[in-house]
């Protein structure tokens, strides 16, 4: 709920700020450029958001259309120790975010609001490896960690290439100014997330098809991957 | 108006992303936290059989056999839940034990070896040498003889007030004999009798004599200690091998306080044993003759080992009988046996197989009666039991092969009788096999199944104490029966799967698993089987931490 609340606050306040900034000089970009040539209206953007950090190459067409080629990436690792069924386990997780995509922006209100759509290769992947740190007591015996084995899990999108829809505030490529700012809220349709479990040794049953299905059922509603991006674009041509 | 559009678009985007932010509904209890406990690779199921009734001792009563473990690998014997121990009690006539997989890995060159000594009040104690050359599940039967109810070929003589001692000294000569004079013992006046702690016996003496015929099959089958033995040889070295018996005698003398005689001082006990003239001397290949020599062995009840005592000479009596006489100074079991014979330490592999698809998954037990070749034909040598499960496709081969320890390099006839515990054979009796067991090639025995209804059962164990639900990959000794039947069938469950053969449709079946030295659950798990051929059993047991 906190996330939703934050998003709503962000949604209602961020555009307002941007709008207020742009509206102070409404005429600045109002002049139609109608420039469709290949040689002009190019920009390079840097961005940060839920897809990671990255860059974009932006090409403007006319005064209401931009085409963007985007790349972003980010990874984060985390580890924790847990004791399950008498076994001390080390869980190491690595979350890789990222996308490569082609996006078209249409500006129903020039320089202020755009609707975006595109195709994204969603590189989001969460990998978890669980390995024992200690032996497992079995009666008077201690099963060594190497016999216990381990469990690994990969969680990723169902669709490797997925449609993307977004609503943006600001401009991904200003027609008049050298620098432009954009805030974008959208979602990638990734389908029900897919989980791949693999186990070895004594822990192999933890990675059973049954367990994979239980987890997949729990995460099945998460078909849309949220995207929240802040971007600065520098016009180069 | 424009602001309204922005608002609607914003709400639409939240609608798209919304599910990604919804509360995560996940119940960890839905996960199966199973652990593959296939740690224990070498398992033994021991069945304790009454030698006369041929029923499991304690299956329908509270009788428990006390079992102690001795020998080379005794320190590594444990129950299947990993608790090391050297003493166990049977449950329902069965005992399931295993060996520590981190210290004992049986192989052809280094088999796992230990000896079980089994004791039960009112029964003659016995022992069994256990030996395995590979990992797997192995089944042994130990026959125990109830002293007051002996099988064919066993003579028991119990005499109360057979003599009197005062401060350990016998006041008058004592002579006790079995009904057919198979065994005669004499102790002269003045001989001192003491127990194992050196205390003199006092008062009236009771004497029990037991004689096992060396030629009666039932008597040989229930031979205390079996015929595959560990001995302390004449040179004082430990040796493994097989006995060919010429007769066995158990003697017990107790005073009125219940103290058992162990040693004789200032005199000795004369032991006179009749030799059955049909006994074949393996040294000569002919029936035993006057002048033949036979080693005499005494038994150590504490570790199940035999010790060389003497070589006795067979003599002919005026009545035309064959007898041996020896003087002994300590009381034990005494056995007239030939030992050795250049036996091979492990026999060729006997591989059971079937070309019938109906054999797949079926468990089978075989009683194998071994007869050794002598000049007059074949005479009974010993009986062994083999159990296994037919697996694979074509030809279906049993998951275990049979390999015997210390087999003489003679020609044997094997009579193989399939059975199940409730007298419903699942396979046809194969032809008798004639072979030398010390050759090296595998020997195949073809088995044909009898058409019966098979039901494939998956067994999931619910551990009531740990909450784990698992399809156990370890081998678990189990038993099942149709509800209402008084006869259990005993089986190893491998990888959580068994095939029950001869199922009666629309019948409730009961199942118990042998774990932590008892049958669980104590009230058997029940499952109704209708016309289906695949069912799931889910017994709840205590698995232990």
Structure description:
The complex is a heterodimer of chains A (237) and B (545). Chain A is built from three helices and 13 strands, in the order αββββββββαββββαβ. Chain A has a single domain, classed as Beta Barrel (Porin), CATH 2.40.160. Chain A is of the alpha+beta class and 237 residues long. The two termini of chain A are 44 Å apart. Helices cover 16% and strands 55% of the residues of chain A. In chain A, β10 and β11 form a beta hairpin. With 545 residues, chain B is mostly beta strands. Chain B is built from two helices and 45 strands. In chain B, a hairpin with a 2-residue loop joins β29 and β30. Classes of the chains: A alpha+beta (237), B mainly beta (545). The interface between A and B is large, with 49 and 44 residues.
Brief overview:
By secondary structure, chain A is α+β, with helices and mostly antiparallel strands. Chain A is 16% helix and 55% strand.
Walk me through the topology:
The complex is a heterodimer of chains A (237) and B (545).
Chain A: H1 2-23, E1 42-49, E2 52-61, E3 65-84, E4 87-109, E5 113-122, E6 125-132, E7 136-138, E8 141-143, H2 145-148, E9 151-156, E10 161-170, E11 179-189, E12 194-199, H3 209-219, E13 224-235
Chain B: H1 2-21, E1 42-50, E2 66-70, E3 77-78, E4 87-89, E5 94-99, E6 112-119, E7 123-124, E8 126-132, E9 136-146, E10 154-166, E11 169-170, E12 174-177, E13 183-187, E14 192-194, E15 203-212, H2 217-221, E16 228-232, E17 238-255, E18 263-265, E19 269-275, E20 280-281, E21 286-287, E22 293-300, E23 305-313, E24 315-316, E25 322-328, E26 333-339, E27 344-346, E28 350-354, E29 363-374, E30 377-391, E31 396-398, E32 405-407, E33 411-419, E34 433-436, E35 443-446, E36 454-459, E37 461-463, E38 469-470, E39 476-482, E40 489-493, E41 497-501, E42 507-515, E43 518-529, E44 534-537, E45 540-541
Parallel strand pairs in B: 1-9, 16-23, 28-35, 36-44, 37-45
Antiparallel strand pairs in B: 1-5, 2-4, 2-6, 3-5, 6-8, 7-9, 10-11, 10-15, 12-13, 13-19, 14-18, 15-17, 16-17, 17-26, 19-25, 20-21, 22-23, 22-26, 24-25, 27-32, 28-31, 29-30, 29-33, 30-31, 33-34, 36-41, 37-38, 39-40, 39-42, 42-43
């Amino acid at each position: 709920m906190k996330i939703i609340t934050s998003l709503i606050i962000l949604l209602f306040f961020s555009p307002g700020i941007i709008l207020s900034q742009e509206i102070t000089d409404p005429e600045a970009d109002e002049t139609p450029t109608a420039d469709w040539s290949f040689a002009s209206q190019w920009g390079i953007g840097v961005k940060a958001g839920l897809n990671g950090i990255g860059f974009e190459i932006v090409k403007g067409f006319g005064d209401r259309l931009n085409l963007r080629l985007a790349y972003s990436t980010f990874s984060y690792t985390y580890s924790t120790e847990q004791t399950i069924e008498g076994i001390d386990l080390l869980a190491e997780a690595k979350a890789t975010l990222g996308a490569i995509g082609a996006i078209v922006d249409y500006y129903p209100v020039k320089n202020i609001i755009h609707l975006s759509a595109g195709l994204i290769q969603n590189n989001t992947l969460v990998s978890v490896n669980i390995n024992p740190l200690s032996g497992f007591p079995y009666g008077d015996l201690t099963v060594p960690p190497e016999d216990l084995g381990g469990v690994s899990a990969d969680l990723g999108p169902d669709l490797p290439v997925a449609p993307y829809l977004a609503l943006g505030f600001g401009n991904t490529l200003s027609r008049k100014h050298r620098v432009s700012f954009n805030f974008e809220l959208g979602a990638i349709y990734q389908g029900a997330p897919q989980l791949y479990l693999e186990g070895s040794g004594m822990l192999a049953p933890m990675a059973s098809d049954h367990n994979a299905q239980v987890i997949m059922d729990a995460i099945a509603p998460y078909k849309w991957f949220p995207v929240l991006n802040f971007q600065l674009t520098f016009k180069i041509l | 108006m424009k602001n309204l559009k922005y608002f609607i678009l914003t709400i639409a985007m939240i609608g798209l992303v919304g599910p990604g932010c919804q509360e995560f509904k996940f119940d960890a209890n839905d996960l199966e936290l199973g652990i593959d406990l296939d740690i224990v690779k070498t398992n033994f199921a021991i069945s304790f059989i009454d030698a006369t009734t041929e029923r499991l001792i304690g299956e329908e009563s509270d009788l428990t056999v006390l079992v102690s473990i001795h020998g080379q690998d005794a320190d590594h014997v444990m129950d299947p839940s990993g608790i090391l121990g050297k003493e166990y009690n049977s449950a329902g006539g069965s005992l399931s034990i295993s060996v520590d997989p981190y210290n004992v890995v049986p192989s052809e060159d280094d088999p796992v070896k230990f000896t079980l000594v089994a004791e039960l009040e009112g029964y003659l104690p016995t022992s069994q040498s256990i030996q395995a050359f590979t990992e797997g599940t192995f089944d042994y039967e130990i026959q125990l003889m109830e002293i007051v109810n002996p099988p064919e070929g066993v003579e028991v003589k119990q005499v109360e007030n057979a003599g009197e001692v005062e401060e350990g000294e016998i006041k008058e000569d004592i002579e006790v004999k079995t009904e057919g004079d198979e065994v005669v013992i004499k102790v002269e006046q003045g001989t001192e009798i003491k127990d194992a702690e050196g205390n003199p016996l006092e008062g009236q003496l009771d004497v029990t004599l037991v004689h096992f015929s060396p030629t009666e099959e039932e008597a040989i089958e229930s031979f205390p200690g079996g015929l595959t033995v560990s001995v302390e040889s004449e040179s004082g070295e430990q040796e493994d091998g097989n006995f060919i018996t010429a007769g066995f005698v158990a003697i017990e003398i107790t005073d009125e306080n219940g103290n058992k005689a162990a040693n004789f001082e200032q005199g000795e006990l004369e032991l006179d044993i009749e030799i059955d003239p049909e006994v074949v001397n393996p040294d000569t290949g002919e029936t035993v003759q006057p002048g033949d020599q036979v080693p005499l062995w005494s038994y150590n009840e504490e570790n199940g080992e035999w010790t060389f005592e003497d070589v006795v000479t067979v003599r002919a009596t005026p009545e035309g009988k064959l007898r041996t006489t020896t003087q002994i100074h300590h009381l034990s079991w005494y056995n007239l046996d030939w030992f050795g014979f250049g036996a091979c330490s492990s026999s060729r592999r006997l591989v059971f197989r079937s070309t019938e698809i109906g054999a797949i998954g079926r468990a089978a037990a075989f009683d194998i009666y071994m007869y050794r070749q002598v000049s007059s034909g074949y005479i009974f040598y010993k009986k062994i039991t083999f159990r296994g499960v037919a697996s694979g496709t074509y030809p279906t081969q049993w998951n275990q092969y049979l390999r015997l320890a210390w087999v003489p390099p003679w020609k044997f006839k094997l009579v193989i009788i399939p059975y199940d515990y409730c007298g419903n054979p699942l396979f046809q009796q194969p032809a008798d096999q004639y072979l030398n067991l010390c050759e090296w090639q595998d020997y195949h025995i073809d088995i044909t199944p009898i058409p019966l209804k098979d039901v494939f059962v998956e067994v999931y164990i619910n551990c009531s104490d740990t909450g784990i639900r698992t399809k156990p990959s370890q081998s678990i000794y189990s038993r099942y029966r149709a509800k209402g039947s008084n006869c259990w069938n005993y089986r190893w469950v491998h990888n959580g799967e068994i095939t029950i053969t001869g199922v009666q449709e629309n019948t409730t079946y009961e199942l118990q698993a042998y774990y932590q030295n008892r049958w669980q659950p104590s009230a058997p798990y029940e499952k109704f089987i209708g016309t289906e051929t695949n069912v799931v059993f889910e017994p709840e047991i205590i698995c232990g931490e």
